[in-house]
Structures are given as C-alpha cells and as structure tokens.
C-alpha cells in the first residue's frame, strides 16, 4: 500500500465516488475533506492542503490530465484522483509500522530513579499525546532526529527493559494530541480517573451479560414469572382503587342542579341520591332541580367534597362591568327629568327653555312619547328628559326617574297635587334623586302657591323657607317668570352631587325610546351614561343587536361620537329595542348575536302559553256570558315603543274575574299582513295606536274577519275594551272607508296655502268626507277636506284613476309620498 507521510500521521481518506477505491494518506484537515465531499475543491486549495504551490499541481494535471485554466478552477473527481495517485506514488515511506511506532513521550524528571523508567516508559507509551497539526511533512527518520533531546534518555531506558526482538504491530499503541499550549496539567491524575471509570463500566457490563445468560438458562421458569408479575399488577391495581375510594371525590355544584345531574357528578346512582334526599326530608325525583345548599348537604353526606361552580356566562365575558378608577373620572352634565300630572305644563316648560314648540304636535295636548333634549344654560350643559303625565305611562315615568340625576316636579298652581303627581314623587324617591318642585301657571289669577306647599308637606317635601330641604320655585312657562331661578337651582344641585363619568371606555346607557321608520329602519333614542359611543360601534340592547351607522342629536345634527349624559338618536339596529333596556357597546359582534339569541329563547319560553278563538268586541260579552271566553288575546301596534308598552300595560290591567286580557304581540310600526295572520290563528283583536294597516293587511283582515281598532288617544282604547268586557259596548258610529289617494306633488299657492296634487288609487274621494293623512304607516293628522278640485273646477268627488288637488283644513304639513285615506262616519242604529 502506498502512503504519504504527514506531520499529523496517516489519515486514510476513501474516495467518495468512482468504481475503484483509492486510499490516500494526505495532509488534509478533516473539515477540508468534508468540504471536499459536499462542495467545490479548487486548484489553489489542493496545493495549500498538500504544502505545495499551485504551479506544481497544475503541472501534474498538465502531464496526466487536462491543463487547468487558472488556480481558481474547480477540480472534478477524475482530476483529484490523478493528483492523489501521483502524490502517493512520489511520496512513499519505508513501512506503516515505523510511522505508528513513532509516539510522543512525556519528559521525565532527572531525579527519577532508573528502576522506575520502565514503568514511566510504558505509561508514556500508552498516554503520550499526538504531535500538533501545524508541523511540516517529513519522513520517519528525520522526524525522530527532530525530537527534543530530553525525551531520548527516557525512551532508551524504556527500551532497555523490553525484549530486543519485539514484533512490529500495525495497531498504534496510543496517539495523544497535546492541546495544553504550554500549561502544566497533571495528566496522570486524569488518566487514573479515566481508567477507574472504564473498569467500573466494564464490570457492570459483564455482570449484565451474566444476568441475561442466567435468565436464558431458566427456560422452564419463564411462564411462572409472567404469572407472578400479573398477580403483582392486580394487587397494585386493587390497592390504588382502595386509595381512590378513601380519597373524597370533589364535586362542583352550580347555583341550581338537577338531581340526575348531581348523581352523575358524584358517580352514584339516581336511587341513592333520591334516597338520601328523602332521609333529609326533601321529596324530589331525578328530573327535579335543587338549590346549591341542598345539593351540598347531600354530596357531603355521601362522602364527596363540594366546590361552588362559577359559571361564566356569555354576558359576563362580553360586557365590561368593571368599576372605574377615581383618577379616570371626569365631570359630566346632569340629566334632569321633568315629571308631573297631565296638563300641568311639563312640555311647555321645556318649550320655553329650548325655544321650541312640541306640545302642538301631541294629540289633545297630551305627551305620549318620551323626548330627550340637551340645552346650554349659563355656559353649562343640561340634559332634559320629558315624560308623559297620563296614568297609563307609569313605566315611562319610572324609566325616566331611574336614568336621571335630578327630578323637576311640575305642579300647577291652580290645580294642586294630583294622582300622577304623587306617583312621580314616589318614583323619584325610589330612584333616590333630589326633587326640585316647580309651581307652574303662576300667571293665572287663581294661582295659590301656599296651598301647594301645604300639600307637599304631606309627602315629606318641606320647603326650604319652612325649615325643610326641598327647593321650590314659582314659575310661569307661559311668561318665563322664575325659569332662570329654576335653572340656577338645577345647576347648584348638580354641583353639589359632583357628577362624574369615565369617557375613555366602552359606552353603556339606557334606551329612552325606539320606533320603526319606514325609510331608515329601527330608530332608537339612547342616553349615554358612561363611556363614549362612537359611530361604527357594535351595541346590544335587550334582544336587539346592531352597528351604529349614524348618530344625530336632538337638533338633528350628525355626530361621530357621544360622551356621557348625551342623548342621541341612532340607526343601524337589527330590530327595534325595548324602551328602558340597557345598552352596551361590545367588541365581539358574533358573541353579541349569540347572547341575543339566548335572550330571545328565554323570552319565548316564558311567553309560551295557550291561545283562544277568534273574537270581536261586538260579541265579546255574549261569549263571556256563555262561558266560552276565558281570555281575550290582543295584538298591540303603536308608532313608538314607549306608547306600545303603555297601551299593553293599560289593557292588561283591565282584566276581571271572567276574562283575562292577554297581549300576545306588542311591536312598533304599521299593521302588516303577518300581524293579521297571527290574529287569525290566535283569534286576537288588533289594536292600532297612531298607526294604520297597509293594503295587504286590510284585505287579509277583511277576508278572515279579523277585528282591527285604530286609536289616537289612549283613553278611547281603554274605554272601549272595558265597555266591551262589561257588556256596555254600543258603538254609535262606524267608519266607512271610501278610498285612498297618493300625494304625487305638493304645491304652494298664494291664498290657498299648501295644495296636494293627488292620484286616486282606490275607491273615490268625496269633498264632504273626513280624511286621515298617513306617512310611512303612521297617522300624522286627522281632519276634513277644505277643497277638492279637478283642474280649475271644484268637484264633489273624484273616482279611482283620476288626479285631483286637495287642501286640508288647518293643516299644511303635507309631503310627497303621503297617503290620504278618505272615510265617512256613519251612525249605527242600536
């Protein structure tokens, strides 16, 4: 075998490709060979690794292969083989044994005895390190001559004790690389430690081999050992079961739990749990629900450890109810509710404050909606809520009191304390808000404020001048007398309360009012109580969820955000929310819709009940007398949510011993076909408050015989239902529908006022008939025709398919797209 001598020793490297195997002993570091096997190997790199220059390598390739272009050329496998073979043939050593016999010996101290030299020589022969890699290549003879002089005596002394004719071995005794770099390290100590560890490991391995041999020799006892092992495992299993039985089972119990569910959690049978319940005096079946205390007693008696299960609902995860820090709170405007008896001047007072006239739009001067307004008073903002004064609107008054900070109680100086005044006082006291009494109508000659003060003391409202703490302000909403003093008292009371809120959080507040608009969809009036409501927020209110598409204030101006104490009107809800519901701005719309579905399901389960047969008010009393009627189902539709709730509450109150009024559906908007279908299947009466049925609903009701009653004042609805239930219903007039006309254009003519250019779509329009102006399904006016013309001539009637001009008596607010319904009131013979 041909070899190549290097200072690092003989490193055999196998050629990585090709048919024949070539072993070369070359001076190439191991990392270079790994690089060679996986990457490119250039001419100058080969020359450097062999200690030659690039010209010599290029000459070899020129003689025996292809001449390289330059020193950067990448060599192929065949070219590398030529170089390796050439260098191996031209750089040979005498024998491999002489290379391996060349070992490094540790220098010995001069004071060492000569008899210890054989041991030291032997040890040095076993533990001498290899020469370092940075030496130049040379042959064996020259390498031995280059040894340090101090090593030769030790080597000679070691060789004197050995036999002279020692056969050469191909296995090297030991090669050690000295990496100490001049530091003195006691290598003998580490060598002894290494030998001790190696000896211990060898003994363990030999003992292990003997153990395995002994197992194999016991062929007959193998099956017996397996059986014994199974018995031991079974014993361990039984022991673990005993320990588990002694350890009490931990059972998590919520506020309420079914008996069957409790049994499954305790890993007991239902019969055992029922038996334990009966021992404790509780008669319950598996399907019954028991409370936490009872379940905890039963579980502890049956040897279980009880923990309270805290169920985190979707509502708790979705709605942020954390308390605000004191440093985050900022001052906010006060919210003031105006309450009092009907026709005592609440809306007139607000009219004077905000210089608007709202009462003229109310039917009969009665406020039947709730309004929220924000005004600037002496540089400070105050939010006012106007509530109805009629007895039917108790819920709306209570709602107004609960969301406000100050209550203004309006009492007419000429009328005194009335029932709804007392109710307002009780609502304000229940809400624990301060009351400011405004004695209105002081401009009348019969005004008697002293009598009012005397009556107020009966309800624990003692005036300040009489030693009490109730602020009383005599005012006149007509002339403006005393109103500045009233507003000053409101600001003073608000300052005393130190009203604060955190605007830097998600908004929450209350729904003041809601309605369904034909063009814009559900419209809700919200009062933000904390946080800031922004355009685009997802809000949830009761069973309604949606995104705020647009916000407007009381003056109709668009807003992008609304802070605390700001009333806004929003659009974008999926359905009409309930008036009085709390609303919250949330981050996750998907989770909000899940919560809404859950709430709807709960309401549906609570409202499910039996339904009766079709009924009308005319034959209601006769059915009651015959024993057929036990329940009167009613469907209530109104223009706004608050009015719908008020009508519903008033009608449900008039139930008696023989019949119970049940409102099966209450909503806002015009009466549609689905309402009539519901009335048909449930035998209900439809009560419309300030709304009208559409054409399809009217036709379906006529075919199915559904009774629909339309009212504009709540007194009439209550009185008619009460009269029907008592058998006193004797209607004197009956409405006969003549036709409908659609307003196509509106003209303003000097002297005549507003003229509606109409097209008769159904029936006919008569000049002597009464009309009803309907806008988006809501009645906005009821009155009579002032004039009816065809072209320039007056006409008594205009038939279907013709155009005409109509003016309405004492009414000018006509808009394009309105519907004019024409009808006559005929007297019915009793």
UniProtKB/TrEMBL annotation:
Residue ranges, compositional bias (Polar residues): 129-142
Residue segments, region G-domain: 334-482
Subcellular location: Cytoplasm
Compositional bias annotation for Low complexity: 110-128, 143-155
Predominant location category: cytoplasm
Region (Disordered): 110-188, 200-234
Protein task: One of the essential components for the initiation of protein synthesis. Protects formylmethionyl-tRNA from spontaneous hydrolysis and promotes its binding to the 30S ribosomal subunits. Also involved in the hydrolysis of GTP during the formation of the 70S ribosomal complex.
NCBIfam families in UniProt: IF-2, small_GTP
Protein name: Translation initiation factor IF-2
